[in-house]
């Protein structure tokens, strides 16, 4: 496991996003959040607002380092209302030197900054919306995944977790983790789902894609979308044209950026190797951590949920401890973004990769 994460870091350093063609106007990067407390404990999460663990913070920072090494410059970031994704977004942008204090600048102010000073401000607006929340896991929320597999069987749990149109059992109104208890949803109580299939999740992410993300991409903005496994699966399913039958086989790892080049119709451009990624065999995007590393993570995650013969928690084993210690040494302390001349010139050079802000 330690070898896997060392190879991931090496791949991140060596890979340059310019080789993916940074000159195209239609670029989007997807990142799933870092490890949260309930990821660590192997529990169904849904809309429950679980924080990042210390390891999740390191995962998010490593994702930021991968993106920083790629040379990509984001115009805007989008994420959910859940703090595990919000903090991941902030950590990624911090490591990239593109951190943004929400609400500091409007789009008009950013346009003025660029037009007047001919460079981009070294921070990025972050939009947060409930339509980018994780899917609701209904009555499964809070339960240990492996215990649910033991109770209902691997096939049934895989249907609940990965199928297109089969939601888990609904959450009762008096469920201890019902989102109605959360103040951030007080104005949308009628819209809070009691349970969601991937189809339900896709219906709400489709609205956000059509109304917000697609227009931004068509205007030439490069987007960072930090989310959750199932809201990202629903967007990628549509982007790639994955069938309702095949989507059950798609899983996404935490905190490994997936970068896409899109054509004028916002369809994925063919990869330089002419095929699909080797990690899933389904995607036209590029894993900045390398396909082999992603495959190893997905195999571990599958065993963590479905292999009932493994009693230990794979999120807490000794290999993860080694990875954490190694990452702390490799990354070091977080770098506070500098807004001085050096950073401004770096941003200006990156902006030169585009023909101009649209």
TrEMBL record:
Keywords, comma-separated and alphabetical: Glycolysis, Isomerase
Entry-linked Gene3D superfamilies: Phosphoglycerate mutase-like
Gene Ontology biological process terms from the UniProt entry: glycolytic process
Single Gene Ontology MF annotation: phosphoglycerate mutase activity
EC code(s) of this entry: 5.4.2.11
InterPro entries: His_Pase_superF_clade-1, His_PPase_superfam, Phosphogly_mut1
Uppermost EC category: isomerase
Catalytic site: 33 (tele-phosphohistidine intermediate), 134 (proton donor/acceptor)
Site feature (Transition state stabilizer) residues: 228
One matching Pfam family: His_Phos_1
Residues annotated as binding substrate: 32-39, 84, 134-137, 145, 161-162
HAMAP family found in the cross-reference section: PGAM_GpmA
Family: Belongs to the phosphoglycerate mutase family. BPG-dependent PGAM subfamily.
Protein's UniProt name: phosphoglycerate mutase (2,3-diphosphoglycerate-dependent)
Native species: Thalassiosira oceanica (Marine diatom)
